[in-house]
Specification:
The complex is a heterodimer of chains A (269) and B (343). Chain A is mainly alpha-helical and 269 residues long. Chain A contains 13 helices and 2 strands. Chain B is α/β, with parallel strands linked by helices. Classes of the chains: A mainly alpha (269), B alpha/beta (343). The structure holds adenosine-5'-triphosphate and magnesium ion.
Chain lengths: 269, 343
Protein backbone atom coordinates (compact mmCIF):
# COMPACT_ATOMS: atom_id res chain seq x y z
CA UNK A 1 0.00 0.00 0.00
CA UNK A 2 2.76 2.35 1.01
CA UNK A 3 4.68 1.37 -2.08
CA UNK A 4 1.66 2.10 -4.23
CA UNK A 5 1.23 5.50 -2.64
CA UNK A 6 4.86 6.21 -3.28
CA UNK A 7 4.63 5.13 -6.90
CA UNK A 8 1.54 7.25 -7.44
CA UNK A 9 3.25 10.26 -5.98
CA UNK A 10 6.24 9.71 -8.26
CA UNK A 11 3.98 9.34 -11.26
CA UNK A 12 2.18 12.49 -10.25
CA UNK A 13 5.46 14.40 -10.13
CA UNK A 14 6.43 13.11 -13.53
CA UNK A 15 3.00 14.07 -14.76
CA UNK A 16 3.47 17.57 -13.47
CA UNK A 17 6.95 17.86 -14.87
CA UNK A 18 6.23 17.42 -18.55
CA UNK A 19 4.36 20.70 -19.08
CA UNK A 20 7.40 22.53 -17.78
CA UNK A 21 9.56 20.81 -20.33
CA UNK A 22 7.03 21.75 -22.98
CA UNK A 23 7.05 25.36 -22.04
CA UNK A 24 10.76 25.49 -22.71
CA UNK A 25 10.00 25.39 -26.42
CA UNK A 26 7.40 28.05 -27.03
CA UNK A 27 8.50 28.93 -30.51
CA UNK A 28 7.45 25.53 -31.77
CA UNK A 29 4.01 26.12 -30.46
CA UNK A 30 3.43 29.06 -32.76
CA UNK A 31 5.01 27.42 -35.75
CA UNK A 32 2.88 24.35 -35.10
CA UNK A 33 -0.26 26.46 -34.95
CA UNK A 34 0.40 28.00 -38.36
CA UNK A 35 1.23 24.63 -39.94
CA UNK A 36 -1.85 23.01 -38.44
CA UNK A 37 -4.11 25.74 -39.74
CA UNK A 38 -2.70 25.35 -43.23
CA UNK A 39 -3.08 21.57 -43.03
CA UNK A 40 -6.67 21.93 -41.94
CA UNK A 41 -7.48 24.33 -44.75
CA UNK A 42 -6.07 21.90 -47.29
CA UNK A 43 -8.19 19.06 -45.90
CA UNK A 44 -11.35 21.16 -45.88
CA UNK A 45 -10.88 22.29 -49.48
CA UNK A 46 -10.09 18.74 -50.50
CA UNK A 47 -13.28 17.36 -49.01
CA UNK A 48 -15.39 20.20 -50.39
CA UNK A 49 -14.02 19.33 -53.83
CA UNK A 50 -14.84 15.65 -53.31
CA UNK A 51 -18.42 16.56 -52.44
CA UNK A 52 -18.75 18.99 -55.36
CA UNK A 53 -21.04 16.73 -57.42
CA UNK A 54 -22.48 14.48 -54.74
CA UNK A 55 -24.44 14.78 -51.51
CA UNK A 56 -23.07 11.77 -49.74
CA UNK A 57 -20.07 9.50 -49.78
CA UNK A 58 -20.41 6.16 -48.00
CA UNK A 59 -23.61 7.45 -46.42
CA UNK A 60 -21.87 10.48 -44.90
CA UNK A 61 -22.89 14.02 -45.73
CA UNK A 62 -20.33 16.76 -46.33
CA UNK A 63 -21.10 18.23 -42.93
CA UNK A 64 -20.59 14.86 -41.21
CA UNK A 65 -17.34 14.25 -42.99
CA UNK A 66 -16.03 17.72 -42.23
CA UNK A 67 -17.00 17.37 -38.58
CA UNK A 68 -15.17 14.06 -38.46
CA UNK A 69 -12.06 15.34 -40.22
CA UNK A 70 -11.83 18.54 -38.17
CA UNK A 71 -12.31 16.70 -34.89
CA UNK A 72 -9.76 14.13 -35.96
CA UNK A 73 -7.30 16.94 -36.59
CA UNK A 74 -8.02 18.55 -33.24
CA UNK A 75 -7.56 15.27 -31.42
CA UNK A 76 -4.59 14.24 -33.50
CA UNK A 77 -2.29 14.33 -30.44
CA UNK A 78 -3.98 11.07 -29.45
CA UNK A 79 -1.89 9.26 -32.04
CA UNK A 80 1.18 11.27 -31.38
CA UNK A 81 3.23 8.81 -29.39
CA UNK A 82 6.80 9.27 -30.49
CA UNK A 83 8.37 6.55 -28.45
CA UNK A 84 10.43 5.28 -31.33
CA UNK A 85 12.36 8.47 -31.87
CA UNK A 86 12.50 9.00 -28.15
CA UNK A 87 13.87 5.54 -27.44
CA UNK A 88 16.14 5.68 -30.42
CA UNK A 89 17.53 9.02 -29.37
CA UNK A 90 18.02 7.90 -25.81
CA UNK A 91 19.72 4.72 -26.89
CA UNK A 92 21.96 6.48 -29.33
CA UNK A 93 22.97 9.06 -26.82
CA UNK A 94 23.23 6.48 -24.09
CA UNK A 95 20.73 8.35 -21.91
CA UNK A 96 18.77 5.18 -21.55
CA UNK A 97 21.15 4.40 -18.75
CA UNK A 98 19.58 6.97 -16.48
CA UNK A 99 16.10 5.61 -16.99
CA UNK A 100 17.29 2.13 -16.23
CA UNK A 101 19.06 3.35 -13.12
CA UNK A 102 15.91 4.70 -11.53
CA UNK A 103 14.15 2.59 -8.93
CA UNK A 104 10.90 2.76 -10.81
CA UNK A 105 9.10 0.87 -13.53
CA UNK A 106 10.45 2.32 -16.73
CA UNK A 107 7.32 1.65 -18.75
CA UNK A 108 5.07 3.13 -16.11
CA UNK A 109 7.18 6.23 -15.99
CA UNK A 110 7.08 6.62 -19.73
CA UNK A 111 3.35 6.06 -19.84
CA UNK A 112 2.69 8.76 -17.30
CA UNK A 113 5.03 11.10 -19.12
CA UNK A 114 3.23 10.45 -22.38
CA UNK A 115 -0.16 10.87 -20.79
CA UNK A 116 0.89 14.15 -19.31
CA UNK A 117 2.31 15.28 -22.58
CA UNK A 118 -0.94 14.24 -24.28
CA UNK A 119 -2.94 16.47 -21.94
CA UNK A 120 -0.54 19.26 -22.66
CA UNK A 121 -0.81 18.79 -26.39
CA UNK A 122 -4.57 18.67 -26.24
CA UNK A 123 -4.65 21.93 -24.34
CA UNK A 124 -2.32 23.41 -26.89
CA UNK A 125 -4.82 22.38 -29.58
CA UNK A 126 -7.37 24.88 -28.24
CA UNK A 127 -6.32 27.57 -30.72
CA UNK A 128 -6.70 25.03 -33.53
CA UNK A 129 -10.15 24.21 -32.24
CA UNK A 130 -11.03 27.89 -32.31
CA UNK A 131 -9.72 28.20 -35.85
CA UNK A 132 -11.74 25.14 -36.89
CA UNK A 133 -14.88 26.58 -35.39
CA UNK A 134 -14.56 30.12 -36.69
CA UNK A 135 -12.92 29.52 -40.05
CA UNK A 136 -14.23 26.14 -41.09
CA UNK A 137 -17.59 26.04 -39.35
CA UNK A 138 -16.98 23.02 -37.13
CA UNK A 139 -20.18 21.97 -35.34
CA UNK A 140 -19.37 20.57 -31.93
CA UNK A 141 -21.29 17.63 -30.54
CA UNK A 142 -23.31 18.73 -27.54
CA UNK A 143 -24.48 15.49 -25.95
CA UNK A 144 -22.52 14.88 -22.71
CA UNK A 145 -22.99 11.10 -23.01
CA UNK A 146 -21.26 11.18 -26.40
CA UNK A 147 -18.38 13.11 -24.91
CA UNK A 148 -18.13 10.64 -22.06
CA UNK A 149 -18.07 7.69 -24.43
CA UNK A 150 -15.45 9.46 -26.49
CA UNK A 151 -13.25 10.23 -23.49
CA UNK A 152 -13.18 6.62 -22.34
CA UNK A 153 -12.53 5.36 -25.83
CA UNK A 154 -9.82 7.93 -26.44
CA UNK A 155 -7.97 7.00 -23.26
CA UNK A 156 -8.18 3.30 -24.05
CA UNK A 157 -7.11 3.85 -27.64
CA UNK A 158 -4.21 6.03 -26.63
CA UNK A 159 -3.10 3.45 -24.10
CA UNK A 160 -3.26 0.62 -26.64
CA UNK A 161 -1.29 2.72 -29.06
CA UNK A 162 1.26 3.55 -26.39
CA UNK A 163 1.92 -0.11 -25.75
CA UNK A 164 2.05 -0.83 -29.45
CA UNK A 165 4.64 1.88 -29.92
CA UNK A 166 6.52 0.54 -26.93
CA UNK A 167 6.69 -2.80 -28.65
CA UNK A 168 8.00 -1.19 -31.83
CA UNK A 169 10.42 0.96 -29.90
CA UNK A 170 11.96 -2.14 -28.38
CA UNK A 171 13.12 -3.00 -31.89
CA UNK A 172 15.53 -0.10 -31.62
CA UNK A 173 17.41 -2.07 -28.99
CA UNK A 174 18.37 -4.37 -31.80
CA UNK A 175 18.94 -2.00 -34.68
CA UNK A 176 19.89 1.37 -33.21
CA UNK A 177 18.87 2.60 -36.64
CA UNK A 178 15.75 4.42 -35.76
CA UNK A 179 15.05 6.97 -38.36
CA UNK A 180 13.65 4.68 -41.03
CA UNK A 181 11.45 2.81 -38.60
CA UNK A 182 10.22 6.04 -37.07
CA UNK A 183 9.29 7.59 -40.39
CA UNK A 184 7.59 4.41 -41.54
CA UNK A 185 5.49 4.22 -38.40
CA UNK A 186 4.64 7.90 -38.55
CA UNK A 187 3.45 7.56 -42.14
CA UNK A 188 1.43 4.50 -41.34
CA UNK A 189 -0.21 6.10 -38.36
CA UNK A 190 -1.04 9.19 -40.41
CA UNK A 191 -3.02 7.16 -42.94
CA UNK A 192 -4.16 4.20 -40.91
CA UNK A 193 -5.29 6.13 -37.85
CA UNK A 194 -8.19 7.44 -39.87
CA UNK A 195 -7.32 11.06 -39.32
CA UNK A 196 -7.47 11.92 -43.03
CA UNK A 197 -10.29 9.66 -44.24
CA UNK A 198 -13.19 8.28 -42.21
CA UNK A 199 -12.89 4.51 -41.90
CA UNK A 200 -16.34 3.95 -43.41
CA UNK A 201 -15.14 5.41 -46.68
CA UNK A 202 -12.37 2.89 -47.03
CA UNK A 203 -12.94 -0.25 -49.10
CA UNK A 204 -14.03 -3.21 -47.00
CA UNK A 205 -10.73 -5.06 -47.11
CA UNK A 206 -8.82 -1.95 -46.05
CA UNK A 207 -11.19 -1.43 -43.13
CA UNK A 208 -10.43 -4.96 -42.03
CA UNK A 209 -6.72 -4.32 -42.24
CA UNK A 210 -6.96 -1.02 -40.40
CA UNK A 211 -9.06 -2.48 -37.63
CA UNK A 212 -6.68 -5.38 -37.14
CA UNK A 213 -3.74 -3.11 -36.37
CA UNK A 214 -3.87 -0.67 -33.49
CA UNK A 215 -3.40 2.68 -35.22
CA UNK A 216 -7.11 3.35 -35.66
CA UNK A 217 -7.88 2.75 -32.00
CA UNK A 218 -6.76 6.18 -30.89
CA UNK A 219 -8.40 8.38 -33.55
CA UNK A 220 -10.86 6.71 -35.89
CA UNK A 221 -12.60 4.69 -33.18
CA UNK A 222 -13.13 7.43 -30.58
CA UNK A 223 -13.82 10.22 -33.08
CA UNK A 224 -16.40 8.01 -34.83
CA UNK A 225 -18.16 7.72 -31.48
CA UNK A 226 -17.92 11.44 -30.94
CA UNK A 227 -19.38 12.33 -34.33
CA UNK A 228 -22.12 9.74 -34.11
CA UNK A 229 -20.79 7.75 -37.08
CA UNK A 230 -20.64 4.90 -34.58
CA UNK A 231 -23.94 4.97 -32.66
CA UNK A 232 -23.65 5.62 -28.96
CA UNK A 233 -25.38 2.35 -28.19
CA UNK A 234 -22.34 0.48 -29.45
CA UNK A 235 -20.00 2.26 -27.03
CA UNK A 236 -19.66 -0.59 -24.51
CA UNK A 237 -18.73 -3.00 -27.29
CA UNK A 238 -16.18 -0.53 -28.60
CA UNK A 239 -14.67 -0.14 -25.13
CA UNK A 240 -14.43 -3.88 -24.65
CA UNK A 241 -12.66 -4.30 -27.94
CA UNK A 242 -10.27 -1.54 -27.01
CA UNK A 243 -9.69 -3.04 -23.60
CA UNK A 244 -8.70 -6.26 -25.32
CA UNK A 245 -6.27 -4.27 -27.43
CA UNK A 246 -4.80 -2.64 -24.34
CA UNK A 247 -4.35 -5.93 -22.54
CA UNK A 248 -2.84 -7.69 -25.52
CA UNK A 249 -0.48 -4.88 -26.38
CA UNK A 250 0.54 -4.44 -22.78
CA UNK A 251 1.45 -8.10 -22.41
CA UNK A 252 3.35 -8.24 -25.66
CA UNK A 253 5.23 -5.01 -25.04
CA UNK A 254 6.17 -5.78 -21.45
CA UNK A 255 7.43 -9.21 -22.44
CA UNK A 256 9.39 -7.91 -25.37
CA UNK A 257 10.92 -5.22 -23.22
CA UNK A 258 12.14 -7.76 -20.70
CA UNK A 259 13.92 -9.61 -23.44
CA UNK A 260 15.16 -6.56 -25.28
CA UNK A 261 16.64 -4.88 -22.24
CA UNK A 262 19.27 -7.60 -22.14
CA UNK A 263 20.45 -6.26 -25.45
CA UNK A 264 21.04 -2.77 -24.17
CA UNK A 265 24.53 -1.67 -24.88
CA UNK A 266 24.86 1.81 -23.59
CA UNK A 267 26.67 3.75 -26.25
CA UNK A 268 29.59 5.94 -25.46
CA UNK A 269 31.76 6.77 -22.42
CA UNK B 1 30.03 -10.18 3.64
CA UNK B 2 31.46 -7.82 1.08
CA UNK B 3 29.27 -5.14 -0.37
CA UNK B 4 30.37 -5.79 -3.93
CA UNK B 5 31.50 -9.21 -5.08
CA UNK B 6 32.66 -9.69 -8.63
CA UNK B 7 33.66 -13.06 -9.96
CA UNK B 8 35.05 -13.80 -13.39
CA UNK B 9 33.10 -10.88 -14.76
CA UNK B 10 33.28 -10.73 -18.53
CA UNK B 11 31.71 -8.58 -21.22
CA UNK B 12 32.07 -9.26 -24.89
CA UNK B 13 30.63 -6.70 -27.28
CA UNK B 14 29.54 -7.81 -30.70
CA UNK B 15 30.21 -5.06 -33.16
CA UNK B 16 28.47 -5.42 -36.52
CA UNK B 17 30.90 -5.17 -39.40
CA UNK B 18 29.67 -3.18 -42.35
CA UNK B 19 31.12 -3.07 -45.78
CA UNK B 20 31.02 0.39 -47.30
CA UNK B 21 28.21 1.49 -49.61
CA UNK B 22 24.67 0.38 -50.22
CA UNK B 23 25.74 -3.12 -51.26
CA UNK B 24 27.50 -3.50 -47.95
CA UNK B 25 24.47 -2.31 -46.05
CA UNK B 26 22.25 -4.83 -47.81
CA UNK B 27 24.73 -7.62 -47.32
CA UNK B 28 24.89 -6.72 -43.64
CA UNK B 29 21.13 -7.01 -43.47
CA UNK B 30 21.07 -10.62 -44.62
CA UNK B 31 24.37 -11.98 -43.47
CA UNK B 32 25.49 -9.82 -40.59
CA UNK B 33 29.08 -10.32 -39.57
CA UNK B 34 30.22 -9.47 -36.10
CA UNK B 35 33.51 -8.71 -34.59
CA UNK B 36 33.87 -9.57 -30.95
CA UNK B 37 35.48 -7.20 -28.53
CA UNK B 38 36.23 -8.39 -25.04
CA UNK B 39 35.92 -5.23 -23.01
CA UNK B 40 36.05 -6.87 -19.59
CA UNK B 41 37.89 -10.14 -19.21
CA UNK B 42 37.30 -12.41 -16.21
CA UNK B 43 37.88 -9.87 -13.49
CA UNK B 44 37.55 -10.55 -9.77
CA UNK B 45 37.38 -8.24 -6.81
CA UNK B 46 35.54 -7.57 -3.60
CA UNK B 47 34.74 -4.26 -2.01
CA UNK B 48 33.87 -3.92 1.65
CA UNK B 49 31.63 -1.46 3.37
CA UNK B 50 33.15 2.01 3.56
CA UNK B 51 35.92 1.36 1.08
CA UNK B 52 36.72 4.03 -1.49
CA UNK B 53 38.48 2.27 -4.31
CA UNK B 54 40.10 3.83 -7.33
CA UNK B 55 39.41 1.93 -10.51
CA UNK B 56 41.90 3.09 -13.08
CA UNK B 57 43.24 2.23 -16.48
CA UNK B 58 44.00 3.86 -19.80
CA UNK B 59 41.29 4.83 -22.30
CA UNK B 60 39.30 1.83 -23.40
CA UNK B 61 40.58 -0.38 -20.59
CA UNK B 62 37.06 -1.40 -19.66
CA UNK B 63 36.32 0.80 -16.66
CA UNK B 64 33.00 2.23 -17.76
CA UNK B 65 31.88 -1.15 -19.03
CA UNK B 66 32.55 -2.64 -15.60
CA UNK B 67 30.63 0.13 -13.89
CA UNK B 68 27.69 -0.24 -16.24
CA UNK B 69 27.51 -3.92 -15.37
CA UNK B 70 27.80 -3.22 -11.67
CA UNK B 71 24.90 -0.79 -11.85
CA UNK B 72 22.78 -3.39 -13.59
CA UNK B 73 22.10 -1.63 -16.87
CA UNK B 74 24.41 -3.82 -18.89
CA UNK B 75 24.09 -7.59 -18.84
CA UNK B 76 27.40 -9.39 -18.33
CA UNK B 77 28.40 -11.97 -20.90
CA UNK B 78 29.85 -14.15 -18.17
CA UNK B 79 30.71 -14.30 -14.51
CA UNK B 80 28.70 -13.01 -11.62
CA UNK B 81 28.12 -9.83 -9.67
CA UNK B 82 26.61 -9.41 -6.24
CA UNK B 83 25.89 -5.98 -4.88
CA UNK B 84 24.51 -6.09 -1.35
CA UNK B 85 23.66 -9.69 -2.09
CA UNK B 86 21.66 -8.94 -5.23
CA UNK B 87 22.23 -9.59 -8.89
CA UNK B 88 22.11 -6.03 -10.20
CA UNK B 89 20.85 -6.92 -13.67
CA UNK B 90 18.15 -9.36 -12.61
CA UNK B 91 17.07 -7.18 -9.70
CA UNK B 92 17.72 -3.91 -11.44
CA UNK B 93 15.03 -1.87 -9.74
CA UNK B 94 15.77 -3.09 -6.21
CA UNK B 95 19.44 -2.56 -6.82
CA UNK B 96 18.83 0.93 -8.17
CA UNK B 97 17.31 1.99 -4.88
CA UNK B 98 20.59 1.36 -3.05
CA UNK B 99 23.05 2.97 -5.39
CA UNK B 100 24.10 6.41 -6.53
CA UNK B 101 25.79 6.91 -9.86
CA UNK B 102 27.60 9.71 -11.64
CA UNK B 103 28.71 9.30 -15.20
CA UNK B 104 30.87 12.34 -15.70
CA UNK B 105 30.20 12.43 -19.42
CA UNK B 106 26.43 12.40 -19.19
CA UNK B 107 23.74 13.96 -17.13
CA UNK B 108 21.06 12.26 -15.11
CA UNK B 109 19.25 15.51 -14.51
CA UNK B 110 16.33 16.59 -16.61
CA UNK B 111 17.85 18.87 -19.14
CA UNK B 112 15.08 21.45 -19.24
CA UNK B 113 14.14 21.49 -15.59
CA UNK B 114 15.58 23.67 -12.89
CA UNK B 115 17.96 21.70 -10.69
CA UNK B 116 15.66 21.87 -7.69
CA UNK B 117 12.86 20.24 -9.67
CA UNK B 118 15.09 17.37 -10.72
CA UNK B 119 16.20 16.93 -7.13
CA UNK B 120 12.62 17.00 -5.85
CA UNK B 121 11.68 14.27 -8.24
CA UNK B 122 14.72 12.17 -7.41
CA UNK B 123 14.08 12.51 -3.70
CA UNK B 124 10.57 11.27 -4.25
CA UNK B 125 11.71 8.36 -6.37
CA UNK B 126 14.11 7.20 -3.71
CA UNK B 127 11.67 7.70 -0.88
CA UNK B 128 13.71 10.29 0.97
CA UNK B 129 11.61 11.52 3.92
CA UNK B 130 10.77 15.21 3.37
CA UNK B 131 12.49 16.39 6.54
CA UNK B 132 15.64 14.48 5.69
CA UNK B 133 15.52 15.79 2.14
CA UNK B 134 15.40 19.34 3.35
CA UNK B 135 18.32 18.69 5.63
CA UNK B 136 20.36 17.15 2.82
CA UNK B 137 19.50 20.02 0.52
CA UNK B 138 20.74 22.53 3.07
CA UNK B 139 23.87 20.51 3.58
CA UNK B 140 24.59 20.23 -0.14
CA UNK B 141 23.87 23.89 -0.71
CA UNK B 142 26.78 24.50 1.63
CA UNK B 143 29.24 21.81 0.67
CA UNK B 144 28.65 21.96 -3.06
CA UNK B 145 27.74 25.63 -3.18
CA UNK B 146 24.49 24.84 -4.93
CA UNK B 147 22.50 27.73 -3.52
CA UNK B 148 22.53 29.89 -6.61
CA UNK B 149 22.15 26.93 -8.98
CA UNK B 150 18.91 25.49 -7.69
CA UNK B 151 16.75 27.56 -10.00
CA UNK B 152 18.92 27.09 -13.07
CA UNK B 153 18.02 24.52 -15.74
CA UNK B 154 20.81 22.05 -16.33
CA UNK B 155 21.18 23.01 -19.96
CA UNK B 156 22.33 26.46 -18.85
CA UNK B 157 25.03 25.21 -16.51
CA UNK B 158 28.77 25.17 -16.98
CA UNK B 159 30.56 21.86 -16.76
CA UNK B 160 31.68 22.47 -13.19
CA UNK B 161 28.23 23.55 -12.08
CA UNK B 162 26.73 20.56 -13.79
CA UNK B 163 29.11 18.15 -12.12
CA UNK B 164 28.33 19.55 -8.68
CA UNK B 165 24.65 19.14 -9.43
CA UNK B 166 25.21 15.59 -10.61
CA UNK B 167 26.90 14.70 -7.36
CA UNK B 168 24.04 16.14 -5.39
CA UNK B 169 21.58 14.14 -7.48
CA UNK B 170 23.56 10.95 -7.01
CA UNK B 171 23.93 11.26 -3.26
CA UNK B 172 20.77 12.97 -2.08
CA UNK B 173 19.25 9.64 -1.08
CA UNK B 174 22.39 8.60 0.80
CA UNK B 175 22.96 5.36 -1.09
CA UNK B 176 25.01 2.53 0.33
CA UNK B 177 26.99 2.07 -2.86
CA UNK B 178 28.31 4.84 -5.07
CA UNK B 179 29.80 4.59 -8.54
CA UNK B 180 31.61 7.61 -9.82
CA UNK B 181 32.78 7.34 -13.41
CA UNK B 182 35.13 10.24 -14.05
CA UNK B 183 33.48 12.77 -11.77
CA UNK B 184 36.28 15.28 -12.28
CA UNK B 185 36.60 15.08 -16.04
CA UNK B 186 37.28 18.44 -17.63
CA UNK B 187 37.18 20.42 -14.40
CA UNK B 188 39.61 23.07 -13.27
CA UNK B 189 41.70 22.59 -10.17
CA UNK B 190 39.49 24.54 -7.82
CA UNK B 191 36.32 22.70 -8.71
CA UNK B 192 38.21 19.42 -8.63
CA UNK B 193 39.41 20.18 -5.16
CA UNK B 194 35.92 21.04 -4.04
CA UNK B 195 34.52 17.83 -5.45
CA UNK B 196 37.21 15.71 -3.87
CA UNK B 197 36.57 17.30 -0.50
CA UNK B 198 32.89 16.70 -0.92
CA UNK B 199 33.30 13.04 -1.82
CA UNK B 200 35.69 12.51 1.04
CA UNK B 201 33.38 14.12 3.57
CA UNK B 202 30.07 12.81 2.29
CA UNK B 203 30.97 9.23 1.40
CA UNK B 204 33.62 8.79 4.04
CA UNK B 205 31.47 9.92 6.94
CA UNK B 206 28.53 7.76 5.96
CA UNK B 207 30.40 4.55 5.33
CA UNK B 208 29.42 4.42 1.67
CA UNK B 209 31.23 1.99 -0.56
CA UNK B 210 32.64 3.96 -3.46
CA UNK B 211 34.10 2.92 -6.75
CA UNK B 212 35.79 5.78 -8.51
CA UNK B 213 37.24 5.88 -11.99
CA UNK B 214 39.35 8.76 -13.10
CA UNK B 215 42.31 9.68 -15.25
CA UNK B 216 43.54 12.07 -12.61
CA UNK B 217 45.89 10.30 -10.26
CA UNK B 218 45.46 13.23 -7.92
CA UNK B 219 41.86 12.18 -7.30
CA UNK B 220 43.03 8.71 -6.39
CA UNK B 221 45.81 9.90 -4.17
CA UNK B 222 43.46 12.08 -2.16
CA UNK B 223 40.51 9.77 -1.91
CA UNK B 224 41.53 6.14 -2.10
CA UNK B 225 43.66 3.81 -0.11
CA UNK B 226 43.18 0.99 -2.54
CA UNK B 227 43.41 0.96 -6.31
CA UNK B 228 42.49 -1.56 -8.92
CA UNK B 229 44.30 -1.09 -12.20
CA UNK B 230 42.84 -2.69 -15.27
CA UNK B 231 44.17 -2.95 -18.74
CA UNK B 232 42.51 -4.47 -21.77
CA UNK B 233 39.77 -5.70 -19.52
CA UNK B 234 42.02 -7.52 -17.06
CA UNK B 235 42.98 -6.60 -13.52
CA UNK B 236 46.72 -6.07 -13.46
CA UNK B 237 47.00 -4.64 -9.98
CA UNK B 238 44.77 -4.64 -6.92
CA UNK B 239 46.24 -3.34 -3.73
CA UNK B 240 47.23 -0.32 -1.70
CA UNK B 241 47.94 2.93 -3.46
CA UNK B 242 51.05 3.21 -1.28
CA UNK B 243 52.78 0.49 -3.27
CA UNK B 244 52.11 2.32 -6.50
CA UNK B 245 53.23 5.59 -5.05
CA UNK B 246 56.43 4.16 -3.63
CA UNK B 247 57.23 2.38 -6.82
CA UNK B 248 56.35 5.08 -9.29
CA UNK B 249 55.99 8.23 -7.25
CA UNK B 250 59.70 8.69 -6.84
CA UNK B 251 60.17 9.19 -10.55
CA UNK B 252 59.74 12.34 -12.55
CA UNK B 253 59.84 12.79 -16.25
CA UNK B 254 61.57 15.63 -17.98
CA UNK B 255 61.22 16.45 -21.65
CA UNK B 256 63.63 18.67 -23.55
CA UNK B 257 63.03 20.35 -26.88
CA UNK B 258 66.23 20.90 -28.73
CA UNK B 259 67.30 22.98 -31.68
CA UNK B 260 69.23 20.26 -33.44
CA UNK B 261 69.22 16.50 -33.63
CA UNK B 262 69.74 14.68 -30.36
CA UNK B 263 73.11 12.98 -30.01
CA UNK B 264 73.54 10.15 -27.54
CA UNK B 265 73.68 11.72 -24.11
CA UNK B 266 75.63 10.82 -21.05
CA UNK B 267 73.29 11.03 -18.11
CA UNK B 268 73.79 11.48 -14.37
CA UNK B 269 73.18 8.44 -12.13
CA UNK B 270 69.53 7.70 -11.38
CA UNK B 271 68.46 9.08 -14.72
CA UNK B 272 67.49 7.10 -17.79
CA UNK B 273 66.40 7.75 -21.31
CA UNK B 274 62.71 7.09 -21.99
CA UNK B 275 62.41 8.16 -25.60
CA UNK B 276 63.94 10.35 -28.24
CA UNK B 277 61.99 11.94 -31.00
CA UNK B 278 62.67 14.51 -33.65
CA UNK B 279 64.27 17.33 -31.69
CA UNK B 280 62.81 16.00 -28.49
CA UNK B 281 64.12 13.82 -25.71
CA UNK B 282 62.35 12.47 -22.63
CA UNK B 283 64.22 11.31 -19.56
CA UNK B 284 63.12 9.81 -16.31
CA UNK B 285 64.98 10.35 -13.10
CA UNK B 286 64.81 9.10 -9.55
CA UNK B 287 64.14 12.01 -7.24
CA UNK B 288 66.07 10.39 -4.45
CA UNK B 289 69.26 10.01 -6.42
CA UNK B 290 69.24 13.24 -8.34
CA UNK B 291 67.30 16.45 -8.91
CA UNK B 292 65.65 18.11 -11.86
CA UNK B 293 68.22 20.88 -11.92
CA UNK B 294 71.11 18.41 -11.97
CA UNK B 295 69.56 16.56 -14.87
CA UNK B 296 68.74 19.74 -16.71
CA UNK B 297 72.19 21.21 -16.33
CA UNK B 298 73.83 17.95 -17.40
CA UNK B 299 71.72 17.83 -20.52
CA UNK B 300 72.18 21.52 -21.31
CA UNK B 301 75.90 21.06 -21.30
CA UNK B 302 75.60 18.54 -24.11
CA UNK B 303 72.87 19.95 -26.34
CA UNK B 304 71.20 23.26 -26.99
CA UNK B 305 67.84 23.22 -25.25
CA UNK B 306 64.97 25.40 -26.43
CA UNK B 307 62.45 24.45 -23.83
CA UNK B 308 61.81 21.80 -21.23
CA UNK B 309 58.93 20.54 -19.11
CA UNK B 310 58.55 18.34 -16.04
CA UNK B 311 55.78 15.86 -15.46
CA UNK B 312 54.65 13.08 -13.17
CA UNK B 313 54.69 9.67 -14.81
CA UNK B 314 51.24 9.07 -16.22
CA UNK B 315 49.03 6.08 -15.94
CA UNK B 316 49.89 4.69 -19.37
CA UNK B 317 53.47 4.64 -18.29
CA UNK B 318 52.74 2.94 -15.00
CA UNK B 319 50.74 0.29 -16.82
CA UNK B 320 53.62 -0.27 -19.22
CA UNK B 321 56.02 -0.66 -16.36
CA UNK B 322 53.77 -3.08 -14.51
CA UNK B 323 53.85 -5.22 -17.62
CA UNK B 324 57.57 -4.96 -17.69
CA UNK B 325 57.68 -6.44 -14.25
CA UNK B 326 58.05 -3.33 -12.13
CA UNK B 327 55.99 -4.88 -9.35
CA UNK B 328 57.37 -8.39 -9.59
CA UNK B 329 59.98 -8.21 -6.86
CA UNK B 330 58.32 -7.50 -3.57
CA UNK B 331 55.32 -6.06 -5.36
CA UNK B 332 51.80 -7.27 -4.95
CA UNK B 333 50.60 -10.13 -7.05
CA UNK B 334 47.57 -8.81 -8.88
CA UNK B 335 45.07 -11.42 -7.78
CA UNK B 336 46.69 -12.14 -4.42
CA UNK B 337 45.84 -8.67 -3.22
CA UNK B 338 42.56 -10.10 -2.05
CA UNK B 339 44.49 -11.64 0.80
CA UNK B 340 43.59 -8.67 2.95
CA UNK B 341 42.22 -9.73 6.33
CA UNK B 342 38.70 -11.00 5.93
CA UNK B 343 36.12 -8.83 7.70
N1 LIG C 1 28.50 -0.23 -26.75
C1 LIG C 1 29.68 -0.73 -27.14
N2 LIG C 1 29.76 -1.47 -28.27
C2 LIG C 1 30.94 -1.97 -28.66
N3 LIG C 1 32.11 -1.82 -28.02
C3 LIG C 1 32.11 -1.09 -26.89
C4 LIG C 1 30.89 -0.51 -26.39
N4 LIG C 1 31.19 0.17 -25.26
C5 LIG C 1 32.51 0.00 -25.06
N5 LIG C 1 33.07 -0.74 -26.02
C6 LIG C 1 34.49 -1.12 -26.12
O1 LIG C 1 34.89 -1.71 -24.91
C7 LIG C 1 36.17 -1.25 -24.53
C8 LIG C 1 36.12 -0.69 -23.13
O2 LIG C 1 35.37 0.51 -23.11
P1 LIG C 1 35.09 1.33 -21.80
O3 LIG C 1 34.14 2.41 -22.15
O4 LIG C 1 34.72 0.42 -20.72
O5 LIG C 1 36.53 1.94 -21.51
P2 LIG C 1 36.98 2.92 -20.33
O6 LIG C 1 38.00 2.19 -19.54
O7 LIG C 1 35.82 3.47 -19.62
O8 LIG C 1 37.72 4.03 -21.16
P3 LIG C 1 37.73 5.62 -20.96
O9 LIG C 1 38.81 5.90 -19.99
O10 LIG C 1 38.10 6.09 -22.32
O11 LIG C 1 36.40 6.05 -20.51
C9 LIG C 1 36.61 -0.25 -25.57
O12 LIG C 1 37.51 -0.89 -26.42
C10 LIG C 1 35.35 0.10 -26.30
O13 LIG C 1 35.63 0.31 -27.66
MG1 LIG D 1 34.93 5.38 -19.45
Amino acid sequence: MRALRRDLSIYLSIFGMTPKVFMAYQLWFWIGLVLNTIGMAILVFFWRAVYADTDSVAALSLQQTLTYILLAQIFFPLTDVDLIFDFGFNLREGNIIHFLLRPINFQGMYYVQNLSSLMMRLILQIPIAVVATLLFGLQWPTDPATWGAFAVSALLGFTALFFFHWFLACLTFYTTEVWGLGVLIFGMSLFLSGSLVPLTMMPGWLQTVVLSIPFAQAIAVPVSLLTGITPLIQAPLVWLTQLAWVTGMWLVSALFFRVAVRKVTVQGG
Amino acid sequence: MSVIEVENLTKVFKIPQKDPGLGGAIKGLFAPRFQSKTAVDRINFRLDRGEIVGYIGVNGAGKSTTIKMLTGVLMPTGGSIRVLGRDPHRQRIDNAREIGVVFGQRTQLWWDLALIESLNLIARMYDVPPARYKQMLDEFSQTLDLGSLLKVPVRNMSLGQKMRSELAAALIHEPKVVYLDEPTIGLDLIVKERIRDFIKAECGSKGMTVMLTTHDLGDIEQLCRRVIIIDEGRVIYDGPIETIKKKFGKFREITFETTGLVPSLSLPPGCELLSTGDRKVTLRFDRIQTTASQVASAVMKQIEVRDFSLSEPDLANIVKQIYNGALDNGGVEPEAADARPAP
